[in-house]
Amino acid sequence: MLSGTFISFEGPDGAGKTSALQAITAQIAPVLGDRLTITREPGGNPISESIRAIILDRANTAMDYRTEALLYAAARRQHLAETILPALADDKLVLCDRYVDSSVAYQGAGREIGEAAVAQMNEFATDGLLPELTVYFDVPAEVGLHRIQAHRDPKKVDRLDVEQAAFHDRVRAAYLRLQAAHPERIKLIDATQAPEVVVEQALALIKHTAQAYF
After folding, report:
1. Could you point out which of 2, 110, 111, 202 has its C-alpha 20 to 30 Å from the C-alpha of 89?
2. Crossing angle of helices 195-209 and 17-32, rounded to 10°
3. Residue 124 and residue 119: Cα distance in Å, rounded?
4. What is the CATH number of the domain that holds 159?
5. How many domains does the chain have?
6. Class of residue 110 by CB neighbours under 10 A (exposed 0-12, middle 13-18, buried 19+)
7. Hey, how many other C-beta atoms are within 10 angstroms of the C-beta on 113?
């Protein structure tokens, strides 16, 4: 039995979801203590972090797009088995920076290898487990790319960040399709708003979904 609550954060590059997650964590960690698990994809444990390093290494220009998608799915499976499922079984609130929707948007649409095919691959990897809530931080691609160029440490710019604008346009369009298809799970926040407003709205969604923890 999985008695915990699973919530994911999604958004195009530069949407500010990771910064929002950090701000939210600072507010709720003192309240929840060890009932809170903060994690990320790809990553979240040593094996998955090792796969992350391979995927995002800018030197790996020869990586096939299907290889990339399979590596994300493999990292996700290990992340579930080692990190997320044990936390949910232990009645924890799990907040995860990216999950399956990222693969559908980035590999399925951005890489143009097929959204349905990537979704099916991840259905197998996750055994169908989806978050109870996905907070989607929406920004136009050009806004996100401008933020990356203006604020991100050049050493932290990865293989996906340096893709052309058309790639990021396809990613955002796929996210919007996912949100329209699953409005009960995926809740959209306009991430062009002031950061404090974005954090406030995201936290309200989390508290509504995970009322037992607050």
Report:
1. 202
2. 50
3. 9
4. 3.40.50.300
5. 1
6. buried
7. 16
Q: Which domain holds residue 194?
A: 5-213
Binding residues for ATP: 11-18
Tokens read off for 170: 């396809």
At 83, list the tokens: 């990190």
Q: How many CB atoms lie within 10 A of CB 25?
A: 14
Residue stretches of the annotated binding site: 11-18
Query: What is the pTM assigned to this prediction?
Result: 0.93
Tokens of 73: 């799915």
3-state class (DSSP) for residue 127: coil
Strand ranges (E), the chain: 5-10, 36-40, 93-97, 133-138, 186-190
Q: Are 189 and 137 in contact (CB under 8 A)?
A: yes
Tokens of 188: 């959209």
DSSP 211: G
